[in-house]
Design a protein that fits this description.
Shape: globular
Number of domains: 2
Distance between the termini: 44 Å
Strand order of the largest sheet: 1-2
Number of helices: 14
Length: 279
Amino acid sequence: MNLISNIWNHPKTSAAGLLIAIVSIAGVLSQQGVSLGNVGTGTVVSLISALATGLLGLLAKDPETGTEGTRSQGTNAKLGAWAMIALLLPLPWIQGCAEKSIAQDIVNWTPSLQSAVTTVDSTAALLAPADAPIFAAATAGFDAASNLLDAEAKAYLADPTAGTLLQLQTMIVTLQQQVDAALLQAARIVNPASQQHALAAIQAVGTVVSAILSLVQSISSKAAVARMASESGIKLAAVEPYLNLSRSAQVVAVHYGEPVELARAQVARAEQTEINAGF
């Protein structure tokens, strides 16, 4: 009865959850090669997902007036974030205007990246004297790489061509590999307190990098994703033992202003997509 009551009392939230589930399931089916038939030049699965995403966007933007509209502003903001999350899932049919939205979202992540890198720069002071040089050496390239990624992201937003996308793909893989290498080096720190500080700071950078990588994947061809994966010498499986899913979910939830549970599902989906692609 409580389940039915919740659905009845929160119809928009329930509808949003259902639509997100449809988009997620359609993404899995598409990745497994399940099409359910063709519709024009596309597939039934892609049509269902496109319709669900469109309805989710309309639901999020449904205008409200009066007192009821004021009370619903918080809900609409969350629904808007959920609509964006649905678009952020690495779906092969994202094209056109969606690519522009994703390019903007990539740029929107760059301040968080710069903030995380700044935190890394100040973390060495929290470590034991013997561990600080190890940490500093492991993260030495973060500043330059993050600045270059910031520049490439803005260049692609301003001029979304194959050339600028290639540069963005190359830069995100470069930074991803630097982060993964730094995680492996930080994991060798023996002092428990130092190791905890080091891994947390590096993972904060890694969470943003993974989010951007997922976005870049979603607007890249299969051939481009395969090339990017081949350039990733350190695979996600090697660093996964040192990652904290809950910590990453918190970062994503704050960025999009969404429930942590939803962010956790997105992070898990993004990681699985990277693994499936060969990262």
